[in-house]
């Protein structure tokens, strides 16, 4: 029992000494101590973080250099084929130069020769003399619809030659240069519309095998006309008038 009391007394004395030591501590000094600990921990953390970051970066850079070095060693070990081998395998021919296609030259159009007026007329006459198919552009159903018993109309060449109507047939001449229609005795016909119809002279070759021949029937007069066109002037050919100026004589 005495021993227990002695232990209790010693503990109490130690507690009193500890309390006295605590009371002796300065509060201001204690705050400085705590602040220093906090600053020390912060500085240590900052430098530790930078150290670890630099360490990680250096390790990553070292790993990338090792990878690049391994790739270089791989390509150095790989044997590249010779240029001649590639040319032979792909069938390239280096002995003869490649012939590139040339650009086609631009065609040069020659100027059209200038023709004299009389040459133009001769050429026009020769073109119109060319034979044609008498049935080209001819349709009997269409033509029969256009015909009336009291007006002139164009007929086919075969109709004129067969003459089933037994109408009187006459040949007229049309001078194209001055637009004159003349009878067999070279007399000018002034009543062209009542005789051969309106617009018929613009359809030479219709129903005929000649571009300069036209056949017209006038049922009212019971007449059929073969109209032949000539590339001439009525005044020059029939009346003997010439447009060329006369040369003065002494």
Outline the secondary-structure elements.
Blueprint: H1 2-24, H2 27-77, H3 83-90, H4 117-128, H5 140-146, E1 153-154, H6 157-162, E2 168-175, E3 180-182, H7 192-196, E4 213-218, E5 223-230, H8 234-237
Parallel strand pairs: 2-5
Antiparallel strand pairs: 1-4, 2-3, 4-5
Q: Based on CA inertia axes, which overall geometry fits?
A: rod-shaped
Distance between the termini: 193 Å
Our estimate of the beta-strand percent is: 5-15%
Low-confidence stretches: none
Please compute the radius of gyration using only Cα atoms.
63 Å
Give the count of structural domains. 2
* Alpha plus pi helix count: 8
* Strand order, sheet with most strands: 1-4-5-2-3
Q: Average pLDDT across residues?
A: 76
Q: Helix fraction?
A: 40-55%
Give me the secondary-structure category: alpha+beta
Please count the beta strands (DSSP E, at least 2 residues each). Answer: 5
Order of helices and strands: HHHHHEHEEHEEH
What's the main sheet like? 5 strands, mixed
Give short descriptive properties of this protein.
250 residues; alpha+beta; rod-shaped
Short description:
With 250 residues, this protein is of the alpha+beta class. The chain has two domains: 2-76; 132-237, no CATH class.
Task: Describe the 3D structure.
By secondary structure, the protein is of the alpha+beta class. It folds into two domains: 2-76; 132-237, no CATH class. 46% of the residues lie in helices and 11% in strands. It contains eight helices and five strands; from the N terminus they run αααααβαββαββα. It has helices at 2-24, 27-77, 83-90, 117-128, 140-146, 157-162, 192-196, 234-237; strands spanning 153-154, 168-175, 180-182, 213-218, 223-230. A five-stranded mixed β-sheet has the order 1-4-5-2-3. Strand 4 (213-218) and strand 5 form a beta hairpin. The longest helix has 51 residues, at 27-77. The radius of gyration is 63 Å and the shape is rod-shaped. The protein starts with a helix and ends in a 13-residue tail after the last helix.
